[in-house]
Design a protein that fits this description.
It contains one helix and 16 strands. The two termini are 35 Å apart. It is mainly β and 286 residues long.
């Protein structure tokens, strides 16, 4: 069911050096692998006549203890809260680490391309499903240097009226549910995952990159599952559009309006099937 929602979305992406022990701090909607198209952290409120307000909160924080040309590593934390009284209710928390490792140095006269390893390891506590699990993911993408096809991944391509980039990923995910309300929900799951993220900036010169269209599609397939869950395929499509009507002179502060459409099974919400539309105010600070 598609539901329009009045929503406030706020996104932070800090590239400034912070005092030890963190070299940089990133706050966003979740801590999914860093090559994902950035999704803003959000706080949403939905008001209906004669009913209690419904609240949704999604925020992920990553603190980079190591941040070099080829390696980024640090702890992470993530929280998701949805006070809906129906099956969409969610209250989950994650703690763990994230690692991004460029396997080869890309320098002039050296390697012109390198695979990038993206890893996360987390402990998850789902208070709605009363389940606790350990999760580990390893995925690959690539980076390129120098002249070549303008359609290479993770590199901006441009025409006279359009700018954009895309980032494909492929890998494996492992989940060990060691505690659940029902014994049959405990077990181990191994998933193959493939995804592609696309960011587009129509009329980027005329609009100064104020209009952003982001499309993300992910497909996860259970290769092995010892739990009682019979759903082995998990597609997820996300489409969003944002227009930033305010940009600071240094282009580090953005405020705008936008909409996000999501259809599929979100791993952040336990792969619950959903379809909804969110409309609201967005802000981004770098």
């Amino acid at each position: 069911m598609t539901r329009p929602t009045l929503i406030l979305l706020v996104s932070f992406a800090s590239s400034k050096a912070l005092a030890a022990p963190c070299d940089s701090l990133i706050v966003r909607q979740n801590t999914n692998l860093q090559k994902d198209v950035a999704k803003p952290a959000f706080v949403a409120a939905k008001f209906q006549n004669g009913e209690k307000p419904l609240y949704t909160v999604g925020v992920g924080v990553t603190c980079n203890l190591i941040d070099t040309t080829q390696t980024t590593f640090g702890p992470l934390a993530e929280a998701l809260l949805n006070t809906s009284p129906n099956k969409d209710a969610a209250k989950s928390f994650k703690l763990g680490f994230s690692l991004e490792r460029q396997l080869l140095a890309t320098e002039p006269g050296g390697h012109r391309a390198s695979p990038i390893l993206l890893m996360e390891g987390t402990f998850k506590n789902d208070r709605v499903k009363r389940a606790r699990s350990l999760e580990l993911s390893a995925e690959f993408t690539s980076v390129f240097l120098g002249k070549g096809s303008p359609l290479r991944p993770n590199i901006y391509f441009k025409t006279a009226s359009l700018k954009g980039y895309y980032s494909p990923q492929a890998g494996l995910e492992y989940e060990r549910i060691y505690s659940a309300e029902k014994k049959e929900d405990e077990g181990e799951i191994v998933r193959a995952v493939g995804m592609v993220d696309l960011n587009l900036y129509p009329a980027y010169q005329k609009l100064d990159e104020r209009l952003v269209i982001a499309v993300s599609y992910a497909f996860r397939q259970d290769l092995s599952d010892t739990t009682a869950d019979a759903d082995d395929s998990h597609p997820l499509l996300t489409i969003s559009g944002t227009y930033y009507f305010y940009k600071s002179a240094n282009k580090k502060k953005h405020i705008g309006v936008g909409a996000t459409y999501m259809h599929g099974e979100d791993p952040s919400e336990g792969f619950a099937k959903q379809r909804f539309l969110e409309i609201g105010l967005r802000a981004q600070f770098k």
